[in-house]
Amino acid sequence: MSTYVYGIARVPVPSLPEDLTGVGDPPRPVRVLEQGDLFAVVSEAPENLTPKRRELLAHQRVLSEAGATKTVLPMRFGSVSDDDETVTGVLADRAAHFLERLDALEGMVEYNIKATHEEEAVLHRVMADQPELRAASEANRAAGGGSYEERLRLGEMVASAVQAREAVDADTVRRTLAPLAHDVSEGPESMGWLANFSFLVDHDTVADFAAAVEDLRMAEPQLELRLSGPLPPYSFVDKTGAGAGVGADAGVRAE
Amino acid sequence: MTVAPAQQQGGGTGNLYDVLELVLDRGLVIDVFVRVSLVGIEILKIDIRVVVASVDTYLRFAEACNRLDLEAGPKKSTGLPELVGDMSESGARGKTKGALTGAAQTVSDAYQQARDESKREEEAAPRKRTASRRKEERE
User: Fold this and answer.
1) Average per-residue pLDDT for chain A
2) How far is Cα A165 from Cα A133, in angstroms, rounded to an integer?
3) What are the pLDDT digits (tens) for B83-124?
4) Residue A34 in contact with residue A2, Cβ under 8 Å?
5) Does residue B81 register a pLDDT over 70?
6) Is A140 helix (H, G, I), strand (E, B) or coil?
7) Do B29 and A76 touch (CB under 8 A)?
8) CA end-to-end distance (rounded Å), chain B
9) How far off is chain B from A9, nearest CA to CA, in Å?
10) A212-224, pLDDT tens digit by residue?
11) Which residue, of A89, A92, B3, B122, has the fewest CB within 10 Å?
């Protein structure tokens, strides 16, 4: 029977809800495997597990429960071990590494922030910043919208200005919030946000971080900010691993 | 304003769609363990955004500027209609559909579902978004 692994943490094992279930249909009961100073939160791995929304949510929910009172190293979705013994074997063999990561992340949570432009506000912004855009727009309007070519030319100038603004605003988000976090990681880039960053925030300063996000929202009305958290430190758990934390020191680049 | 609950304790999921990518793409990977459904996860990483430099985008921006009340503050509503291009959206979706199969389609559906939920939330306070966000919706 293969074993699905949600996360790894340091003993003592916190009390988890008795009826806590994880992935699968029906959802498999969650249990704990202890080994030395560590324990793994696991369940039976269902056959043919696929990354459906329900399964992803189950993974996240189990980690939320396990991480509610202590730091947990979250596994990436879909980590399946041959059996329980393999899991405890990994905990024993790599205890030093896991304990080091747990120490480094002690008391920290991840906040993910995604930014888009609020269209009307960003148009106002670029118009205010660039008088030639405003002039072209007013000329078109005076001409009843302008010819196809005039509209195309204005639109191209505006699109270019908005794109440039995306880069500026991504940088602003990062520069404003980074000082309130221990670390920053660029989120996966494929989803079309102008900024997508995860911040590693000390649990004790979460209120300051949230306040800074609120200030940013007021200061930059063209930005629509979506804040998610507190989350297990998905983006900071494996700084050496591929796909995790690689963007932490990379320059900001708005796509 | 669409804000995932920030102060939810115990690792609240906030907006599920916003954290799905982290569950899928981040987190500890241990070589001894098998990863399921890697194919779907890889396909998710393909950049599906449509470039902002297109005639459609230019015309839409020109139209939006034409309707923009430049004398008003940036937050004043000018009754700008939702120009989110249904016309271009359906076309782009048709194109991508064939490329997504099996597990990838499942993931895509999962994202879509979550996104639709997120859209419903937003309907309470509709706000216009720029091309960059819309590109994402064309997936």
Assistant:
1) 89
2) 14
3) 333 333 333 333 333 333 333 334 444 444 444 544 444 444
4) no
5) no
6) helix
7) yes
8) 23
9) 12
10) 999 999 999 999 9
11) A92
What are the residues whose beta carbons fall under 8 Å from the beta carbon of A251, sequence distance 6 or more?
A: none
DSSP A203: G
User: A34 or A190, which is more confident?
Assistant: A34
Count the neighbouring beta carbons within 10 Å of the beta carbon of residue B132.
24
Interface contact B103, partner A, CB < 8 A: yes
Please check the confidence at residue A46 and state whether its pLDDT lies above 60. yes
End-to-end CA distance of chain A: 44
Q: Which of A95-99, A139-143, A171-175, B36-40 has the lowest mean pLDDT?
A: B36-40
- Which helix (H) or strand (E) is A218 found in, with range? helix A206-219
A78-98 pLDDT, tens digit per residue, is 999 999 999 999 999 999 999
Residues of B in contact with A75 (CB under 8 A): 27-30, 33
Residue A111: DSSP 8-state:
E
Enter the tokens of residue B50: 């449509």
Give every CB contact of residue A30 below 8 A, 6+ residues apart in sequence: A6, A16, A20, A21, A22, A41, A42, A43, A62, A65
Our CA dihedral for A120, A126, A130, A136, rounded to 10 degrees, sits at -40
A-chain residues within 8 Å CB-CB of B10? Answer: 64-65, 67-68
Q: Are strands A3-10 and A38-44 parallel, antiparallel or unpaired?
A: antiparallel
This complex has an ipTM of 0.81
The pTM score is 0.74
Residue A207, pLDDT > 60, answer yes
Angstrom distance (rounded) from CA A185 to CA B26: 10
Phi-psi region of A220 (alpha: psi -120 to 50; beta: other; left: phi over 0): beta
Residue spans of the domains in chain B: they are 16-137
Query: Which amino acid would we find at residue B42?
Result: E
- B40 CB neighbours in chain A (<8 A) are 50-51
Q: C-alpha angle with apex B27: B24 to B31, nearest 5 degrees?
A: 100
Q: Give CA–CA dist B47/A255, Å, rounded.
A: 10
Environment class of A137 (CB within 10 Å of its CB; exposed 0-12, middle 13-18, buried 19+): buried
Name, in order, each residue with C-beta under 8 angstroms of A241's C-beta and a sequence gap of 6 or more: B28, B29
Q: How many residues does chain B have?
A: 139
CA distance A44 to B76: 54
